[in-house]
Specification:
352 residues, alpha/beta, Immunoglobulin-like, 35% helix, globular
């Protein structure tokens, strides 16, 4: 019943906190009160008033004020046979979610591992950040450090789990301590490029928005072309590939391979691919979006966490696909932009 009247997702459920978001389908800015029970006991109440940029970015909520974080009581203790339940408070209480003993992540109470997650955009990295952070105590993790204007290097002294859209080139400039181990995820390159371009299309939905204005001119220009649809998609893509130049190349030419380089090539070539393959050895594990559950399970084994499944993938665009990602003709047009990425993806797949 709840899904008929509200949209919602639970991001993390741990022995310390519950995080997620929810909003009314018809009146999305109206507050929602939630009750949390453990077994039959009411242990707390919360409201969906936290700001969530990710819900704005995927065109999910008009203001982003729909998130929530609930801190479980300090004396909370997991017991087999009892479920943690989240209800929407209303005339007839609606159950949103129920979690049994083996579905609740246990926050690490011993020595914490030191992890840097190289977040390549559109690879399920947002979901993985939510997943990984649930094992770390409050205040010991941070994401999107690329957005920190000053003193990025200091985060490596303050946090144990760190994530950001930083290539190896940018990461090396911060001189991270040797104690940090690296993880990242690659995605099927054709699907990745489609997701990236589809995201660009979404940027142009509202050219007066702050979201649109935050992006560089190259992204704004392409977003407008996709939005106006003055040409057929194959012609637009062909012109796009043939006329990429300068700074634009960084955004669209073999994006995933570029993250594995400690320098910026004008165009990614075979020599760069070989360097990227070699640099895979710097990582404890390189996962694949298409094998996400296996990557999450391996991450838990590596670091001594009890594995729990993740309920829902986040940061999923809700706009109409830009083109048929399976089209052989479109793949041929876009091949120059993913040729190295395809080879790197296949290489990593053989290591898994």
């Amino acid at each position: 019943m709840a899904k008929r009247i509200i949209k919602y997702a639970i991001d993390t459920v741990t022995t310390q906190r519950i995080t997620g978001w929810c909003y009314w389908r018809i009146f999305p800015t109206r507050p929602i009160v939630l009750h949390v029970y453990y077994g039959e006991e009411l242990i707390g109440e919360l409201i969906n008033d936290e700001f969530r940029q990710d819900l704005i970015d995927v065109a999910g909520h008009p203001t982003g004020k729909c998130g929530f974080t609930f801190a479980l009581p300090e004396n909370f203790e997991l017991k087999e046979g009892l479920a943690l339940k989240i209800y929407m408070k209303s005339l007839v209480p609606c159950l949103l979610a129920s979690y049994e003993y083996n579905e609740i992540a246990q926050v690490c109470e011993g020595e914490l591992p030191n992890i840097f997650f190289m977040h390549i955009p559109k690879t399920a990295g947002t979901s993985f950040n939510y997943y990984a952070r649930q094992f770390f105590p409050e205040g010991s993790s941070i994401t999107h450090i690329e957005g920190i204007q000053h003193e990025k290097a200091e985060v490596f002294e303050r946090y144990h789990y760190i994530a950001g859209h930083l290539s190896l080139e940018k990461l090396a400039q911060l001189n991270p301590p040797d104690r940090f181990i690296y993880y990242t995820i690659l995605r099927d390159p054709f699907k990745h490029l489609h997701s990236h371009l589809n995201w660009v299309k979404g940027v142009g939905v509202d050219t007066s928005s702050d979201f649109y204005k935050r992006h560089p001119p190259v992204v704004q220009k392409l977003a407008m072309e996709f939005a106006l649809k003055k040409k057929d998609i194959k012609t637009m893509l062909r012109d796009f590939v043939d006329n990429l130049d300068g700074f634009e190349i960084d955004f669209f030419d073999n994006i995933q391979t570029r993250y594995f380089l400690d320098y910026r090539p004008a165009r990614v070539g075979d020599e760069d691919l070989q360097v990227a393959k070699k640099n895979c050895s710097l990582f404890r594990r390189v996962g694949l979006t298409e094998s996400y559950k296996e990557f999450a399970a391996s991450f838990c084994r590596d670091n001594g966490f009890r594995y729990v499944e993740q309920p829902k993938r986040l940061n999923k665009a809700k706009i109409e696909p830009l083109y048929d990602v399976h089209s052989a003709e479109i793949k041929e047009i876009l091949l120059p932009l993913v040729k190295a990425d395809l080879a790197l993806y296949d290489y990593v797949a053989t290591l898994s």
